[in-house]
Amino acid sequence: MKSTDASFSFKKLLTVLPRGAPLDTAFLNDHGMSAFHASHLAKGGWLTHLGRGVYMLPGDTLTRDGCLAYLMRRHAGLHVGGKTALSWRGVRHNMSFREVITLWGAKQVRLPEWFTTRFECTYQTTKLFGPGLPERFALQPLPGGNPGVMVAAPERALLEALSDVGKTDTLQDTRDLIENMRSLRLPVLEELLAHTTRTKVVRLARVLAEELDLPWAALAKTYSEKKGGGARWIAVTKSGERLDLKA
Q: Is the pLDDT of residue 2 over 60?
């Protein structure tokens, strides 16, 4: 195929290709372009090569949500969680100068360099819930946002944030963050607490809800007593902070 023929067909394809998002060979193939053709166009400057089998349009700017939607199509369970999900949903305490995206997933994956060099992020696969909880429970796109970007609902993001206490966040920062979380949906929170497998998380939920007099304190107490056992749970965080949590 001559380069002029290739460029002509690609010009027609430009009308349907998304902007701000990576283009992989599977997507391009669905639009009639083979992997060989894509490689040929990249060599001719019609596509910019990002990584193995992944391209972008020359002069395009990859957007955060375009990249996240791309990654979430390829990795089941991947979603924006914890403090980032709360911040995106309007629950925040301190504003940071540079956003660090908190990502959660079902299994270990290596995020591509073309993504991590553009967007600072953390990724974890902590098994917070038991197998009985549907994978996408309490995960939804933001209202008016990219429908392909799954973001933890406030109830799920709360428990993810509690899981991070002592790892990436301090107890005080988390306390300040959830102080105004008074309008959680109790049926959703109860379903999540019923499937939570982390003793620390259910006990922190109780301690902070009672301390801050939050409307869901009684619910958190119920599941802390169910799952926490009778003994106190004591741990020292990486920063030296002592967590002394009753059942």
A: no
- Computed from CA positions of residues 42, 45, 50, 56, in that sequence, does the dihedral angle turn out positive or negative? negative
Residue 97 pLDDT grade (very low, low, confident, very high; cuts 50, 70, 90) = low
Contact indicator for 21, 66 with CB cutoff of 8 Å: yes
Alpha-carbon distances, residue 133 vs 124, 137, 193, 208 (angstroms): 18, 7, 10, 24
**Cβ contact 135:145 at 8 Å:** no
Instruction: Identify the CA nearest to 86 among candidates 10, 22, 155.
Output: 155
**31 — phi, psi (to 5°)?**
-105, 20
Same domain, 47 and 122: no
Report the percent of the chain where pLDDT is more than 90. Answer: 67
Pair 200, 243: CB distance under 8 Å: yes
Can you give the residue range of the structural domain that contains 18? Answer: 3-56
**How many independent structural domains does the chain possess?**
2
Q: Same structural domain for residues 50 and 96?
A: no
Non-local CB neighbours of 67 within 8 Å, separated by 6+ positions: 21, 22, 115, 118, 119
**Shared domain check, 132 and 27:** no
Give yes or no for a contact between 20 and 60, defined as CB atoms under 8 angstroms apart.
yes
Quick one: 15 and 92 in the same domain? no
